[in-house]
Amino acid sequence: MAALSADYAPKPVVAPCWLLEEFVVTTECSQCNAFQSKSWSACSLTGYVERVNCTKSNRDEYKSCRSALMEEHLFWKFEAVMLALTVIFAILVVVRQRWLDRLASEKVRRQIESI
């Protein structure tokens, strides 16, 4: 059995420089376009990316980020869902209370009829 050649050896995973050293944001957080979303791994997490320059190695890399606009959109979406759930459960409480009141009055009516 032949030994694996160096061509087939797995390449080591290199951590981004911004995880290992200080960095400066050179381009603010912006939304990825369709091409970037498919080809850049940094875009896959949040759909937003910022360009950073690592101070020690002087490398430019892209880093996933969370934009204020996206956070605001998620907040209002959460608020809308909570409001909808509040309305649904309030309606359920009213319906159940009416049903229980009807059962109670029916029970009282039967008790009065049995006298």
TrEMBL record:
Parts of the chain that traverse the membrane: 74-95
Gene Ontology, cellular component aspect: centrosome; membrane; midbody; mitochondrion; spindle
A single BP term in Gene Ontology: mitotic cytokinesis
Keyword Coiled coil recorded: no
Membrane topology annotation: Single-pass type I membrane protein
Localization per record: Cytoplasm, Cytoskeleton, Microtubule organizing center, Centrosome; Cytoplasm, Cytoskeleton, Spindle; Membrane; Mitochondrion
Major subcellular site: cytoplasm
InterPro entries assigned: JTB
Keywords tagged on the record: Cell cycle, Cell division, Cytoplasm, Cytoskeleton, Membrane, Mitochondrion, Mitosis, Signal, Transmembrane, Transmembrane helix
Superkingdom of origin organism: Eukaryota
Function: Required for normal cytokinesis during mitosis. Plays a role in the regulation of cell proliferation. May be a component of the chromosomal passenger complex (CPC), a complex that acts as a key regulator of mitosis. The CPC complex has essential functions at the centromere in ensuring correct chromosome alignment and segregation and is required for chromatin-induced microtubule stabilization and spindle assembly. Increases AURKB activity. Inhibits apoptosis induced by TGFB1. Overexpression induces swelling of mitochondria and reduces mitochondrial membrane potential.
Record note on quaternary structure: Interacts with AURKA, AURKB, BIRC5 and INCENP. May be a component of the CPC at least composed of BIRC5/survivin, CDCA8/borealin, INCENP and AURKB/Aurora-B.
Matches recorded under PANTHER family: JTB PROTEIN-RELATED (PTHR13041), PROTEIN JTB (PTHR13041:SF3)
The family this protein is said to belong to: Belongs to the JTB family.
Protein name: Protein JTB
